[in-house]
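U., I forgot to send this yesterday:
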Amino acid sequence: MSVDSAPINLTNHFLIAMPGLNDELFGRSVVFMCEHSERGALGLVINKPSDILLPGLFTKVDLVLGRDDLRDQPVFQGGPVQTERGFVLHEAIDAGEGESVYASTLTIPGGLEMTTSRDVLEAIASGAGPRKVFVSLGYASWGEGQLESEITENSWLTVAADPALIFDTPVAQRYEKAMALLGLAPWMLSPDAGHA
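Result:
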């Protein structure tokens, strides 16, 4: 296998939309990659808040949010797939022997987990659960080879993920801060790719 065709793994990386990517959801987006393999990729857009706040989401699922620190946090538009389903990105909580404490959790190398089961919401509602959480409705996905193709077409930049960008950075600053991880600013990049 040549170096050019070696598989890449962007799990625990950010995809940063190139300035020329004109798409309502993905334009100026930052996507945290939860999983990437030869079969495809799954990620959550971390900088597109919806008009729903966490207390509203909890009410919709018959729970009362018992944490004041999350009252003003928006629910995000994680992507165009399964937009009625919730995804909770949070720091890893180990139940021992490498097992997650929640029923349906994807462990992401680098210290984060993505949980889709109701038990994480119940834990948060009671004031327990993970301290830092990011909640989205929907996710982004790419089929086999699709993401790699979009990267070679200059749609995305990639950089190793920094959890502080997800949990501690104001939403309006996430795109520029993600670019800064590469030493770039959006104005430095032409929306048109150059081909000789």
